[in-house]
Design a protein that fits this description.
Its main location: other. Pfam families: Ig_CycH, TPR_CcmH_CycH. By secondary structure, the chain is of the alpha+beta class. It has three domains: 114 residues; 145 residues, Tetratricopeptide repeat domain (Serine Threonine Protein Phosphatase 5, Tetratricopeptide repeat, Alpha Horseshoe); 109 residues. Helix content is 56%, strand content 12%.
Amino acid sequence: MTDLWLYGALLILAGVLFLVWPVWKARRQRNTVDRTALNVALYEERVAELGAQREAGEISAELHDIALEEAGKLLLEDTAKADEARRPTHRGSPIALLVAAAALPLVVVGLYLSWGNPAGLQLLREMQNDPMPADLVAYIDRMERITEVQPQNGEVWYMLGRAYLAQQRPADAANAFGNSMDLMGVHPEVLAQYAQARFFANDNKLDSEAADALSRALEMNPNEPTALGLLGINAFEAGDYAGAISYWERLQAGMPPGSEGFTAIQGGIDRARERMGEPADSAAEGPQIAVRIELAAELAEQYPDDAVVFVSARQPQGPPMPLLALRLNKSELPVEVALNSSHALMPGRSLEPGQALQISARISTDSDVRNAGHQSEAAEVKVGEQDGAVVLQIDRGM
């Protein structure tokens, strides 16, 4: 914004000069009047001097008259010039103009800060110089500032909600999606994202508002993928395995067979069929990582049995958003689980043999991972190459 303030300063300077110019001009005119008065005094001295010379006999009466006439002509010419210079002057105090000149910069800056949009201009320059933020935290910070500058931009609220979900802030995400719908109207994908955020914020349970949002989303788009996936998860958690399979098969129908998303959903379908005592369609769930989660004995009494344990796997040098995530209760520990593509947070993500992952576990008294009090040391593994289960012992303070 340096150039903006530079141009603004030049304009303010021009305005100040416009106000100060009459005062400066009047001062010059007063200087002219002062010089005329001096010339009159000099004329009088010249007349006295000529009179003294005549009385002393230094000059004749004729020369005295000639010199006196010449001095009078010079005085008249100077007086005429002074009168001409004084005609445009206006009487009055210059204080008002000087005060106005001093107040002008303050008024201009104040009006710009009140009516202008310096924050928006700063964001525009920032986005031009750095189109892609370095990480998720920087991206969210930028989106939040954009919503402050453009609170009526529903698209930005939607993007901010997606980013909040990636940062595991479901309550904030639900508010952002709600703002988006208020501004852009109701769209099936936004309804589904709103319901998903409320689902995660409510400890993986659908409340009445989230269920209504999913119902409306499917009415508008019967194949809305987020809605079908979420309803499948909810049915699975409720023990309605047939319902989960029905939703997930509808979701699979819109995916290319053999794609990563198709394979991930198939893993969930296979697990549901196993729970029903039926054979799985696929022989195996694909690559997986065996993980054992333990809680240090000295921490056991600090957390209730319903405390939430978060297990996540992310790329070691990638974004903070996990690729895989699993929630458990403290009462289930110690436990050994197999992380696979069915635990992917986003459709289309699956594990690949030899893929490097960083796995960690945290424990929190509520369903918000940001409130976790203790965690395990992160373990880096490669899919299919670990020898036995990876042990994650939760024993470190956050």
